[in-house]
Amino acid sequence: MTLKPRITNRKQISGTYIRIIKMALKQKLHLVFGVITIFGAAGFQLWIPILLGSSVDIAMDVFSAENADVSDQLIFSGVLLLISSIMRGIFTMAYNYSGESIGQHIGYELRLLYYQKLQKLSFSYHSHIHTGDLITRGILDIEGVSMFVRTAVLRSIYLVVLIGTGTYLVLSTDLVLGILSLSFVPLAGWRATAARLQLRSSWFALQEKLSILSKVMDENLGGIRVVRSFASKTHEMDKFDRASEEALTIANDQVQVKSKNVSLIGISFLAAMGLVLWVGGLKVINGSITIGELTTFLAFMSILQAPVRMLGMMVNAFARGAASGGRLFSVLDMSSDIEDSQGSTNLTITKGVLKFKDVHFGYEGEHTLNGVTFEAKPGHAVGIVGPPGSGKSTIAHLIPRFYDPSSGAITIDGQNIKDVTLDSLRHSVSVVEQDSFMFTASIDHNVAYGNPWAEDLDVETATRNTQMYQYISRLPNKFSTMIGERGVSLSGGQRQRLSIARSILLNPKIIIFDDSTSSVDAATEQKIRVALQEISKDRTSIIISHRLSSLMHADEILFIEKGKIIERGNHNKLINNNGKYAELYKLQIRPDDKNKSEKIKNER
User: Fold this and answer.
1) How many CB atoms within 10 Å of residue 473?
2) With contact defined as beta carbons under 8 Å apart, do 261 and 313 qualify?
3) For 414-431, how does the pLDDT look when each residue is reduced to its tens digit (9 = 90+)?
4) In this predicted model, what pLDDT tens digit does every residue of 507-527 receive, in sequence order?
5) DSSP letter at 157?
6) pTM of the model
7) Which helix (H) or strand (E) holds 371?
8) Alpha helices in 65-183 (DSSP H)
9) Which residues contact 318 (CB under 8 A, 6 or more apart)?
10) Tell me, what's the pLDDT at 1?
11) In b/e form, how buried is each residue of 288-314, taking b as 16+ CB within 10 angstroms?
12) Strands laid side by side in the 510-514 sheet
């Protein structure tokens, strides 16, 4: 799923800028300090041409007459010029620091807001968007917004103060030369505006291409073993090269736009300076102005050249800020499908009775569950079995409200789960998934992820119950052993067992095993099941599995097909009914395994 661009018209673009500026206004101290230092930098910057002009006139007097007082004035002017240059540098450094500080604070705030929003968005959102795209938005787009504040906001104020005050000074000194010295500014502004319009769309396209690059790299590194196993290095390099080349093409277009406009601004500046020198020279010859006054005009233009050339950088920042801000705010403005309802209260567990009442659900209009009704309670394990795609995992995901049913109700001790807070619900309900995700951390930190303050003895007990303790105790660093990214250093069965340990450590009132022992061998699974039966006596447990040996000990077994419960009962009853469950049993349980299955049932 690729999110559509948020920026579609001028109103939305302006709204993006306003939101960013409002965030900047929160940094009142840095902003006030930055504005004050801007006036200081602009003032000393404009004082330099005046001092240069007066110094030239004084120097001319020195050459025309031997006068000690005039020489002292020249020295004094030089000292003032040195002081002005130093102060300009100090104030410029100060306002640049303020801009950087505001930009970094906004980047920090946006990172927190963005990450917090991703934690709140529903599973349906995350299942339709690529992780690489989200990472790109969280890094490159936030950097684009931060750069807009650093590069554009305070510098815009600086340019307005510098050009506005300078315009008044030169026009009041000599109207004709003032107009000539400022003649390149309208062209610079026009080209800057044109460049912003061109760069705005290209920045959005570039961000999209960089998102694709992130997706390609994320998939490649996540599936590096598959890539190596199928010798697909060439194919993956070609795919990455195509995505990279598309991004390079857009970047080159941006370079052409920026370099073209910077060159035109530079040419217009030099042409304006030539006119000032020509007309001003004639005025000097006529005696209308002094050489010092002409120097003031030329110095003012030279000083103005660098800030005006900043327009290129500022235009780039404005364009990138609009594109990046639009992409970022499109996520921040999203509302989650799953949220605490108004007036929701914490879940209160008295017995832990879970009920499904005529529950219907579908993904994007496709019906997955149709009228599912059952009850699970402590000491009464419920097993769920059925063909792939029948809706088994959907049931597991509805209980902790990863999704909401389209109709019907799910209650715990009579409380509709839609009316309780998500935090209290998910602290009471634990789902052990088939795909067991492990963090790049030590074994004990992975097991204690849900409760970082768990005692070492509790972590050890949890791993004993899942038959992982002996393996861990043989490791050189035992529980401090680091697990590789996503648990690649462990086998599938070991990851599943650690995942189960992580869940039971929390001591949840309701625990759902969603095919969580599919990668565990039968002998180990049997030992885990015996341990979990003892633990589950006082809690509600639901066991979902394709393998009948994992759930045939359950008190009630539900056979689901096409989202409907077509059979229910314990193992013996379902076998005697000679229906779908019995057929599956005959396919999975070989004749020489019957004694083993009977032994498993007797261990209840």
Assistant:
1) 12
2) no
3) 899 998 998 888 888 888
4) 888 888 887 776 677 777 777
5) H
6) 0.70
7) strand 366-376
8) 68-120, 123-126, 131-136, 142-148, 154-173, 175-181
9) 17, 148, 152, 196, 200
10) 41
11) ebbebbbbbbbbbbebbbebbebbbeb
12) 429-432, 510-514, 540-544, 382-385, 556-561, 564-569
